[in-house]
Amino acid sequence: MKYNKIGHTNYEVSEIGFGAEWMAEKTDEEVEKLVRYCEKEGVNLLDCWMSDPKVRSSLGKAIHKNRKHWIIQGHIGSTWQKGQYVRTREMAKVIPAFEDLLTRLQTDYVEFGMIHYVDEVEEYNKIMNNEFIDYVRQLKDKKIIHHIGLSTHNPEVGLLAADNPEIELIMISLNPAFDMMPPVVLDDYFENDNYSEDLSGIQPIRSQLYQKCLDTDTAITVMKGYAGGRLLNKKDSPFEVALTPIQCIHYALTRPSSKSILVGVNNIKELDDALKYQTASEDEKDFSKILTTAPKHSFLGKCTYCGHCAPCPLEINIAMVNKLYDLAVIHDEVPPSIQEHYNNLESHASDCFGCKKCESRCPFGVEIIEIMKKASVLFNK
Predict the structure, then answer these.
(1) Which stretch of DSSP H or E encloses residue 342?
(2) 372: part of which helix (H) or strand (E)?
């Protein structure tokens, strides 16, 4: 296992991390089996955003036996209310929820206290000027958290966080579909030493974020590296070609400042599929041969979140709505975390009145208005 140092901290995290969000339906024994396997294979980074008491307790029973092995990203602002996950900034709920996390994980500290998902610039600015950040700072002063991190899906928020010296780690959703403006030609991998802001195919704001993280030595850990599994099969991939877990992992880890990818796994086989990256050949890692040889028509009619549809007169973040819709629709039911992300957007698909200005700007002929109608029904908002 290869390890990468997080900024100016003393922590080195495994390239492959354990994203434990799929542990909700597992028994304590199944969770412990996965945790022991992670330890055996050198996986040492654990992200716990989940507020479900059962998940927290199962993880705690497993990791407390070898607590010093683990570097934990513990989220502040993820709560369990009336039997479901709710993200909140209400301190009367934030504080007991984080204390519950520590209790159930059977630890009195976490290495990284993560300000739990912040997807709007306005919300970020509020957090950095109110009692929420005061609480986070108190936790750090008391060494209950050793460093401050933040999770987001919005590169605009990521830029602000990377420019904030208090924040040493950003967890962000990152994969080819979220990152690129196709059609794409990748002549080389996106390595730090040949990084350029003009590298074709990457959304400009993403390039700015990666450059800012390099400049400020802010670490990135990656979530949604497989786009919820969408990139792993031809039917759901926006490129109409399937990537392998190894290719997705390589793409994530070759972004500047990327230190680890948190893979969500249901079992040891899925974990092994990710761990094969450690011994994969350069040919197996090569994602460019897939993306550059994808059939041209694969881009037509499929949203790749490029942002050309903006601006919307009603300020709907069309690319984000489409992204969340695509992530949700592949499940039998909308996952609570995706529903919460959608709920917290400033404008929703139901606000769309069908002016079609977005469609006139879309380079891939996406029927955006139809997607807005479907998203409004799916998310009931």
Answers:
(1) helix 336-343
(2) helix 368-379
Distance set, CA 286 to CA 113, 248, 289, 303 (Å): 34, 9, 6, 24
What is d(CA 347, CA 312) in angstroms, rounded to the nearest whole number? 10
What does each C-alpha distance from 47 to 37, 71, 72, 116 come to in angstroms? 16, 9, 6, 11
Domains recognised in the chain with CATH numbers: 3-291 (3.20.20.100), 300-379 (no CATH)
The two structure tokens encoding residue 311 = 């601006």
Q: Model-level pTM?
A: 0.75
By CB atoms closer than 10 A (0-12, 13-18, 19+), residue 9 is middle
Cα–Cα distance between 289 and 85 in angstroms, integer?
A: 40
Tokens of 376: 């409004």
* Residue keyed to tokens 């670490």: 219
The amino acid sitting at 328 is A
Distance CA 324, CA 105 (A): 30
Element (H, E) at 269: helix 268-275
Which residues make Cβ contacts (< 8 Å) with residue 380, sequence separation at least 6? none
**Across 256-271, average pLDDT:** 91
Rounded Cα distance, 70 and 34, in Å: 14
Sign of CA dihedral 262, 265, 270, 272: positive
For the stretch 49-95, pLDDT in tens is: 998 999 999 999 999 989 999 999 999 999 998 888 888 999 999 99
What band does 234 get if pLDDT is binned at 50, 70 and 90? confident
Cis peptide before 183 (omega within 30 of 0): yes
In degrees, rounded to 5, the angle at the alpha carbon of residue 175 between the alpha carbons of residues 214 and 324 is 120
What is the identity of the amino acid at 235? K
Distances (CA, A) of 189 to 157, 160, 185, 215, 290: 26, 26, 11, 20, 13
